[in-house]
From TrEMBL:
Transmembrane segments: none annotated. It comes from the Bacteria. The modification N6-(pyridoxal phosphate)lysine is found at K232. This is Glutamate or tyrosine decarboxylase. It holds the Pfam family Pyridoxal_deC. Its cofactor is pyridoxal 5'-phosphate.
Amino acid sequence: MTPDDVLTELTALQAGDLPTHGGATMAYVYDSGRAEIEQLAAAAQGAFQWTNALDPTAFPSVARIENDLVGAAAALLGGDGTTVGTLTSGGTESCLLAVLAARERWRRRGGAGRPRLLLPVTAHAAFRKAAHLFDLEIADVPVDPVTCRAAPSAVAGLLDERTALVVASAPSYPHGVLDPIGEVAALAAAAGVPCHVDACIGGWVLPFLDDVPEPFDLSVPGVTSLSVDLHKYGYAPKGVSVLLTGDPELRQEHWFATAGWPGYPVVNPTLAGTRPAGPMAAAWAVHRWLGTDGYRQLARQAHEATRALAAGIGRIEGLRVVGDPVSTLVAVAQDGPAGVDVLNLADEMAARGWLLQPQPPFAQDGGDLPATLHLTVTGATAGRVDALLADLADAARAAEALPRPVADPGLVAAAAAIDPRALTVAEVDGLLELAGVGGGRLPGRMAPVHALVAALPRPVAERLLAGVLDLVYRP
């Protein structure tokens, strides 16, 4: 094949992908709507695409880029002269490292038994992954069923000598609301426990707004670490995130060093060894060019669009906005028993060219959380709010005429008797065929699938979801 043949084939592979530009894909991607930002980022990334950030003594440019970005994040997010940080591959790795550091500190201080992670149920799933990988027990912190904010009283009741870390969100991904950071961090500090603020999606937006109701960053007493992604509202290519740590000693807890083999001495500040420098360079270039004023303009543009979107949704019969969206995320729920089913609404919006991310209902102590649709508003979406609202209103009318998706009772009853740990790959494949997603092929309408996932016991649902991905990734 010629190089042109290869690139033509590569472009053709994207024909079935969701659009990454234009603001209609309201999850996964972050489009500033400004082509010149992407051109600069692409040039910077290309200049560093072969550089290995594994060893900054061999590539001192990497150290300069990382120090500049960490310093900028610290200045923006309440850091001081003792604040240090690390560039990671994304928000998940930043959260993983925060949990790892807290676990190691807990162990060094003589913690006995299995450490615990105090986690609001709305905290990002990355923390559950961290607990799985690093063997922490999760203590679920319920959230207020109306505001969807973590309950400080629950945090106070769960703190004990096994607690290694408390987490709060700024804002939470499912609903876009700000947890009571000050109260949670104060409780953690009084117990001598670190507190991490997950600002992965909001940290490069909230500092530029004038109506944030309360402090949330490292300036809050008791907050010991904070994560913020530059490949979200820093509008850099994926993947680059910053983990800030208020205590230099705490950062050392997630580093790895060994001279215990015949090769070169290894020191890794992150989970990865080799680290791509391209996204780091792109983030650095975009930050240098936009500066505070440029980011403030983009953040306020997206925030104003979010407010307008939330107000418009409130005028659509059968729908409501959950909680008070503080930055650029909106969660939409059915309004009342006769309201619009949001799973059907997601399918109707997909037919109109929009991706709104379905989120299943969630049972918790103190009041269950409803099924919602998640919308991430970016610079590119800001100019399309009227069109989005018009399509939402039209889709809501269409969804009202559809039967509500209901899981097959027989399949749900059978699943209740299954031990998901005992299922073989072949048995999972068979169950997926019964559920209508055999061969990794998703049906045209996903509402029945989402209804089934919500109705199944959680361990069974998780096993089947992993099975879907297993089918997708078969050559």
